[in-house]
Write a structure and sequence with these properties.
With 363 residues, this protein is mostly helical. Helices cover 79% and strands 0% of the residues. The chain has 15 helices and no strands. Helix 2 packs antiparallel against helix 3, helix 3 packs across helix 5 and helix 11 runs antiparallel to helix 15. The chain is globular and about 60 Å long.
């Protein structure tokens, strides 16, 4: 649900950008671009800050805070009097949404078995895709009659649903162990074991008292804020960190570029206002199949590297062919196929984020 909420925001923004001309006819293409960039700038800042906060106050508390941020700034953005005010509110929205992103992944990965972690992480990307489909469906039903401001207000409903679901989600046992709360962690593990009719392994039981009584000391806690960043760039992880960041940069430029500017591109090609939301909705049909195919491919002999290479080449090819044509049907088909490969690529890269990460509780 959290990732689905995040997946909605870029597509919602893509519907807002062409509609800004109705409220603010003097808006330039540069201002529209700055509004789009402000969301992702906020996400960059929010993901870094709240990723660290989640290690201090917990995954669930951080998800609650970031969801409240997202709801508040979304409502505020719907009342924006100028493009510059909208830019500031979109940055605030990105701050909350960006904080959601690493926490959702972390909470998920700390509960799934290590053996099939890559497969489930790849499938997790379907949540983002589902959010995009929901956003397109809402826009299809709302934009034509009520405009982008009402669209933003309605989009807070899925975000608000996160706050209602959170009380039913257990806190991460790994986080509880890190905070010396072994009894709570053990209680959660017992409930999970009972639900799955599996006994808790003896080597995990032995970890509980150790983590409950071991203290890291005041001096080490002061270094906690910078420790994750230093660990990313130590001698062992530096190369993998740089490569992953470059991969995410390129994949994000491709996917988010298509998501954000596709409605504008449809307008430029002369596709009517009444059909554009239906067309964008149809273009999302390739999202989930692409993720599912990628999830299975990375588990085959093809492996993650060859899978990512093939998907990268094919999505680049289909994005390229979007340029020379103006047929609405062709654009919908080509954009759906390009998203098939783009979302598959995202799923495959997401698997690499946690490659080599292990923890006995998740196992």
């Amino acid at each position: 649900m959290g990732l689905g909420n995040i997946g909605m925001k870029p597509l919602l923004l893509s519907f807002i950008l062409p509609s800004m001309a109705k409220d603010w006819p003097e808006t330039s293409s540069i201002e529209r671009g700055l509004v789009a960039s402000s969301l992702f700038l906020g996400m960059l800042i929010g993901s870094f800050i709240f990723g660290t906060v989640a290690d201090k106050i917990g995954r669930k508390s951080t998800l609650a805070i970031t969801s409240i941020f997202a709801i508040g700034f979304t409502v505020a953005a719907s009342f924006s009097p100028t493009p510059w005010v909208l830019m500031l509110f979109e940055m605030g929205l990105g701050f909350g949404v960006g904080g959601n992103l690493p926490v959702c992944y972390t909470l998920f990965v700390e509960f799934i078995p290590q053996k099939r972690r890559g497969f489930y992480l790849a499938l997790l990307a379907t949540a983002w895709s589902a959010g995009e489909v929901i956003a397109a469906a809402i826009a299809w039903g709302v934009m034509a009659e009520h405009g982008w401001r009402r669209l933003l207000q309605i989009s807070t409903i899925p975000t608000g649903a996160i706050l209602f679901v959170l009380p039913f989600i257990p806190e991460s046992p790994r986080f509880l162990l890190m905070r010396m709360k072994g009894r709570r962690a053990f209680s959660i593990l017992q409930k999970i074991g009972n639900r799955n009719r599996r006994p808790i392994p003896s080597h995990i039981e032995g970890l509980i008292p150790y983590h409950s009584t071991t203290s890291s000391g005041v001096s080490s806690r002061k270094r906690e804020l910078l420790a994750p960043l230093k660990r990313l760039f130590n001698k062992q992880n530096r190369k993998q960190t740089v490569i992953l960041w470059l991969m995410w940069l390129c994949a994000s430029c491709g996917l988010l570029g298509v998501i954000i500017f596709l409605p504008d591109y449809f307008h430029a090609k002369g596709i009517g206002n009444m059909s554009i939301y239906e067309d964008i909705f149809l273009s999302t049909t390739g999202n989930v199949p692409g993720i599912i195919v990628a999830a299975f491919l990375i588990e085959t002999r093809l492996g993650r590297k060859k899978t990512m290479a093939i998907l990268s080449f094919l999505c680049a090819a289909f994005i390229f062919v979007l340029g020379p044509v103006s047929s609405a049907t062709y654009l919908i088909v080509a954009s759906a196929i390009s998203k098939f490969f783009l979302y598959g690529l995202w799923a495959a890269i997401g698997k690499n984020n946690f490659e080599g990460v292990s923890f006995p509780i998740a196992k």
